[in-house]
Amino acid sequence: MTESHVVEYKSLRKAIGPKADISDLSKTCVCLANAQGGTLIIGIEDGEVSAPAGQVISQEEANLLLRALSSRSINVGLADPVIESSPNGGQYLHFKVHPSVNSIATTSDGRIYMRLGEECQPIRSEDLMRMAAEKGAFQWELQSSQRITLEQLSTEEINFFIVRARQSDRVSQFVKTKTANELLEYFNLIQPDGIATNLGILWLGTPAQRARLRYPLAVQYIVYDEREQKVRKETWLDYQLNPLRLLEDITAKATELHYYHELPMGLYRKQVRHYPAEVIRELLANALAHRLYTSANDITISVYPDRMELASPGGLPMGVTKDTILHERVRRNPHLMLTFQAVGLMEGEGSGYDLIYEKLSRDAKPLPEIESSFNTLRVTVQSKVLDTNTLLLLDYLASFYNFTQKEIISLGIIAQHRNISATALALALQLREEDRARSWVGRLVDWDIVLMRGVKKGTEYIINPKVYAAAKLNIKPSLKTLEPHRLRALLEEDLKAYPGSLISEMQRRLDELSVEEIRREVYAMVKDGILQPSGANKNRRYALVPKNK
């Protein structure tokens, strides 16, 4: 088990001994409890995967620590500590921190923290209302305010859900063998006493029963022209359909989402949809699954000539931002999502935005633009293809290589930019450190599809010019795609014509290259004895070292 947003390692010195910091440990427990819960492992040092050899922890020490943590935190559920041993014999403590589903966890001095990514951060006063709403969203699914019995629900909808769940490859065989009532109870659609939950009414209810939900599921689809005037509108405000049938009906009637570009490809023409089918389905499924069901707003799909905007009630779940959405996994409506997976509406936890990024990158389209506020989450997807040559290049490479999802996303980003720094790539991939990009681009570099130049944070990635040549793409040569040895030759030619130049003067003449690229290569050429500097600081000029005759 490695550290993540639900797993935290702490040194034993933090918990036991003269340097113990119980307050810091209790803060970590509060962070985990206010998010998804998690595991607190005490006794493993930073950067290690095993406890120190010879480390021993007594059950009495573990019990005292549990008591101390419980006294320093409020509304935090801690399971009894378990003493475990690493392969080397060293012992460590394993704590389970339960999520505070219906309450807000705090430290004993009233401070509130939450796990955001892999960091523990204090909750600002303006976020308290949002957190309270998030906690209420967990309760919505299992409430049964209408007191509707199983016999009063729609027989057709009950049979529909049971058949789809039993046919699903995402439901275990053990669950499939349950009786009809047991299956519905397992998915929290009915309570043990036969009363339908809000989740059950959403799936199994009649239109009249769905309409009486406090905030029923409603969708509007609006098409605009070039002047942003409404030209067509479809609505789903009558509550006739369960979530799966609703999604299928939306995709069938939203004809503008099926439009496509036709691009020349040799003797043939390639059709590229404005919006990939998988992207539309995932965005709609996410809007239905993650919307805030304690808000009265509708889901709205707005289609313009150049883009589609999908807005759903409630911002991103606490713990997720637009800059971490590719990696963070938070369920706002966990029981609803379980039913979505069971009927095939969603692939599974965490697969949505990975797939969206992959499909948009594969079609050389911009990545989604995400805006999140307290009341609304808005996702914008552009219809255009950024660069036809990039699309054709990706088609060519896909016919020879079996890329992973990570590699497709990385390759699409690098190809669209032609030249991108390691820092910018890490930012686009929402990675915290540039070296983590290795698992995303490693094989691309090994296969010579992508070239690296520079070191550490100065590293840049470019598509190998030989790949363009092999794909027979008519791409105008660009300084951005120069291989390192060609960049050096270009600088030598420039200094032959303009000896004694400042770096800024070289950059003005080679304006496609950044100052950083030229400076890095110039410094390397000085180190290799190719260039001779003169002057100091900003007035330093460079010339070629005369060759011995």
Task: Walk me through what this model shows.
By secondary structure, this protein is α+β, with helices and mostly antiparallel strands. Among the domains are: 7-123, Methyltransferase, Cobalt-precorrin-4 Transmethylase, Domain 2 (2-Layer Sandwich), CATH 3.30.950; 399-480, Winged helix-like DNA-binding domain superfamily/Winged helix DNA-binding domain (Arc Repressor Mutant, subunit A, Orthogonal Bundle); 483-544, Arc Repressor Mutant, subunit A. 36% of the residues lie in helices and 19% in strands. It contains 20 helices and 22 strands. The strands form 7 sheets. The chain has a 6-stranded mixed β-sheet with strand order 11-10-14-15-17-16, with helices on one face. A hairpin with a 2-residue loop joins β12 and β13 (268-273). α1 (22-34) packs across α2 (59-71), α14 (405-417) packs across α16 and α18 crosses α20 (515-527). It holds the Pfam family HATPase_c_4.
Features:
single chain; about 550 residues; alpha+beta; Methyltransferase, Cobalt-precorrin-4 Transmethylase, Domain 2; Arc Repressor Mutant, subunit A; six-stranded mixed β-sheet; five-stranded mixed β-sheet; 20 helices; about 20% strand; globular
